[in-house]
Amino acid sequence: MKDLEYVVEDSILINRKFHHYFVMRRDQLIREMTEIYAGLIIDFTYEGKQSIRVTMKGEKACVEAAKKHIEQIFEPLGSHVTKQYVIPQKFYTFFMGPMSSKVHQIAKDYKVQLSFPDKEKPTMHIHPVAQEIGKDKGRKNTKELPFSNQRRCKTIFISGQMENCKAAMEALEYLIPVTAEVRVPSHLHPYIIGHKGSGIKKLMSEFDVHTQVSQPGGNSNIISIMGLAAKVEQAKIKLEKQINALQSQIEDRARRNFKLSFILDPKYYCKITGHKGLLIAQICTEHDVTIQFPKKGNHEIQDQIVITGYKENTLAAKDAIMRMLYKIEKTVSKEIPLNHQVRDSIVGFTGKTIQKIMEQFQVDIRLPPKGSWNPNITVIGLPDKVQEAIDHILELEKYYLSTVIKYDSQLDNFKNTCLYKITMESSKCFGKRDVPRNAKATPNSPNDDSEEFPKLKQQTPPKTHPWRP
User: Fold this and answer.
1) Pairwise CA distance, residues 397 & 63, whole Å
2) Which of 41, 143, 182, 267 has its CA 20 to 30 A from that of 316?
C-alpha cells in the first residue's frame, strides 16, 4: 500500500500543430524517458482537433521530471512561426543570387527555413526540433493560403523561431535591389558602354549590379543601375565621374580647336618659317599651337594663315609672328672685309667665338664658304645691333693684327741677328783656309794641320721655330 501512495498520474496538453513531430519521435521519446525514469508509463490521446493529451503514470518524482522534460522539448516549438515575404517578380533573379547563394546564406546564418514556391524542397539550416515542425507547418500553410501562380513566384516562406524569422526578414529586405537612373547624353554612350559592352560590364562586375540602357525610341539618355543600395550608390558615383570626365575632355578638345586666321603676304612665308622650318616650329612648340599655311595648289587663298589651339595661345603665337615680321622688315645686311691673317682667331675653334658674338648682339653672321677668296663676312640684323657687332669685330681684328705685327717684327730681328753671326763666323773660317801651307806658324799656333781650321759645328746658329699666332 505504501508503494501505491507514491504512484501518481499526470497529463500535459500539446498543441495539435506539433502532432507530426510527436508521432515521428514518439517511440524514441517514450523509450528515452522510460529508461531515464524507471517504471514510467506514457500514453497520449487526441482531444478534438486542437490538442493532444500526454498522460504519464508512475512515481511522483518521475512523473514531475518527465512532465518538465516534455515541456522543455515543446516550449521552443510554441514560438515557431511561418512568415511570408513578397518581392517583385523582376527582382527575383537578383534577389536569389548565383545558385540561390544569397538566400542560402541567410537561412544558414539565422537558422530558419526558407521555402520557395517554385521548388519542392525547402532550404533548411535550423535546429532539428524545429526542422520537423517547420516542414509540417510549411506544408499546411502552403495549402491553406490561396496564392495565384504569379503571386507564388513573388513569395518566400520563412519558418523558424520568431526572433530568427524577424532577423531573417530584415536580411532579406537588404537583398531587395534598388534602382537608380543616371542621365547620360546619347553622344557619350559609346564611350560609357565601350567596345562590345566592355565598359558597362566592368562597372557591373566591380559593384555587383545590373545595368540597363534605354532602348532606341525611348529616353536614350537614361542608364538604369539595379543592385544593393550601397553598391548602386557607389556605381552611380563612378558613372557620374566618368560622364563628367568625358564632358571635360570634349569641352577641352573644343577649346583646343579654336582657329585664328589672318592675312599675310606670301613673300614673307620663307622668312618666318626659317631654315627647314625651324623658326615656325619653335613658335608652335613654345605656344602649343599648330600653324597651317595655304596649300600651293589652292589658287583662291594664298595669303591666309590659320593658327589652331587654345584661344589665348593662338593670339600669343600670332603676336610672335608679327614681331618676327617687324624684325624682318627692319633687318639690314652689311658686309665687311676681314683680314685673312686674323680670320681664324675671330671665328674661333669650331666657330665658338663668332657664335658668342651673334648671341651677344642678336645678329646673324655669315662667313664665305671654305676655299673661297672672298674676304668679306655678312652681318644681318637690326641696324643698331648690326653696327655694334661690326664695331666689335673690327676691334678684335685690330687687336689680333697688332699682335701679329709685333710678333713678326720680333721674329725678323731674331732672324737678322742669327744671319749676321753666321756670316761673320763663316768669313773667319774661309780667311784661314787661304793662308799658304809653308807660311810660318805663329808661336801660339800648333803645327798640326788638323787644327789649322776651326770646327764649324760648334758655331751652328740655334734652330728657329715656325711662327704661331
Assistant:
1) 137
2) 267
* Residue 88: DSSP 8-state: -
- On whether the CB atoms of residues 382 and 331 are closer than 8 A, the answer is yes
CA atoms within 13 A on the CB side of 203: 26
Give the per-residue pLDDT at 256.
93
**Using an 8 Å Cβ cutoff, are 391 and 336 in contact?**
no
Cell 556605381 locates to: 235
Question: Count of residues for the chain?
Answer: 469
User: How does 77-101 read in b/e, with b if 16+ C-beta sit within 10 Å?
Assistant: beebbbbebebeeebeebbbeeeee
Residue with cell 516542414: 135
What averages of pLDDT result for each successive group of 10 residues across the chain (469 residues)? 61 68 66 75 72 80 82 68 78 75 85 69 41 44 39 70 86 85 88 89 90 66 88 94 93 93 88 86 94 77 88 95 87 88 84 91 87 84 91 91 71 64 61 48 44 42 43
Q: Do 91 and 155 form a contact (C-beta atoms < 8 A)?
A: no
Q: What is the distance between the alpha carbons of residues 459 and 282, in angstroms, rounded to a whole number? A: 69
Q: What does the block give as the cell for 458?
A: 760648334
Report d(CA 437, CA 168) in Å as an integer: 151
The candidate with the shortest Cα–Cα distance to 91, out of 258, 240, 281, 224, is 224
Catalogue the E-assigned strands of 219-370: 222-227, 258-263, 290-292, 304-309, 332-337, 364-366
Cell for 152? 507564388
SS3 of 100, please?
Answer: helix
pLDDT recorded at residue 306? 94
Grid cell 768669313 is found at 427
Cβ(306)–Cβ(259) under 8 Å?
A: yes
Which has the closest alpha carbon to 364: 397, 324, 406, 334?
334
Considering only CA atoms, which of 135, 169, 110 is closest in space to residue 19? 135
Helix or strand run (H / E) with residue 59: strand 51-59
CA distances from 418 to 409, 413, 426, 463 (A): 14, 9, 12, 10
C-alpha 293/C-alpha 277 separation (Å) is 12
Q: Residue 447, SS3?
A: coil
Half-sphere exposure of 190 (CA within 13 A, CB side): 1
**CA–CA distance from 44 to each of 18, 34, 56, 292 (Å)?**
13, 15, 9, 106
Strand order in the sheet with 210-213: 178-183, 222-227, 210-213
| pLDDT score, position 9 | 80
Cα–Cα–Cα angle for 96, 88, 100, rounded to 5 degrees = 5
